[in-house]
Amino acid sequence: MIKTRKEKEAFVSCLNEKFKENNSFFLVDYKGLNVEEINGLRKNLRKIESNYSVVKNTLTKLALNDLPVDDLSDCLQGPTALVMPFSPKDKRDETLVEMSKVLITFAKGHKQLKIKGGLFNGKLIEASGITDLSKLPSREVLLSQLLGGLQAPIVGLVSTLNQLVAGIIYGLKAVMEKKQKDI
């Protein structure tokens, strides 16, 4: 538990560094959840390289104070937990999608959890935006859809060329058969 002013300043400084390194996170209201439920949520979030922590709203505001991010005052009211990815930078967007899926799934089973909003690359994202984010397909599915889209014109071209070659072969075969009959 942070008690002294010096501890609070050190904590705010540390949190500020985390926000500078990663300007995307979600805020949730955990009021009404018991310790067992929160620990279950924490466990699910750790699996996807994310962290759930309860931070005083005033300390969060102080840590965000000097950063070029949208205002979160509306989200920082009442009991608030911070959900933030700790995955490598190249996987953060994917982790944010997975975080949103874990939170939405958990909220369906635990009506007490309220998603307030958060930041996505420094821009305010509302609860509805987090819900929309949770509906995105996984990275693997998106890549396969992209490859399928890129592959379709090539397959069409190959098919067309194949039909042309087959047409020429059938034409030559017909000419050859006709010449054999004439002999």
Structure description:
- The chain is an alpha+beta fold.
- The chain has two domains: 5-136, Ribosomal protein L10, N-terminal RNA-binding domain (Alpha-Beta Plaits, 2-Layer Sandwich), CATH 3.30.70.1730; 138-183.
- The chain is 59% helix and 14% strand.
- It has six helices and five strands, in the order αβαβαβαββαα.
- The protein has helices at residues 5-21, 35-47, 57-64, 92-109, 127-134, 139-182; strands spanning 25-29, 50-54, 81-85, 114-120, 123-126.
- A five-stranded antiparallel β-sheet has the order 2-3-1-4-5.
- A hairpin with a 2-residue loop joins strand 4 and strand 5 (123-126).
- Helix 1 packs across helix 3 and helix 4 packs across helix 5 (127-134).
- The N and C termini lie far apart (104 Å).
List the helices and strands and how they pair.
Blueprint: H1 5-21, E1 25-29, H2 35-47, E2 50-54, H3 57-64, E3 81-85, H4 92-109, E4 114-120, E5 123-126, H5 127-134, H6 139-182
Antiparallel strand pairs: 1-3, 1-4, 2-3, 4-5
Question: Could you name the key traits of this structure?
Answer:
alpha+beta, Alpha-Beta Plaits, 5-stranded antiparallel β-sheet
Summarize the structure.
By secondary structure, this protein is of the alpha+beta class. It has two domains: 5-136, Alpha-Beta Plaits, CATH 3.30.70; 138-183.
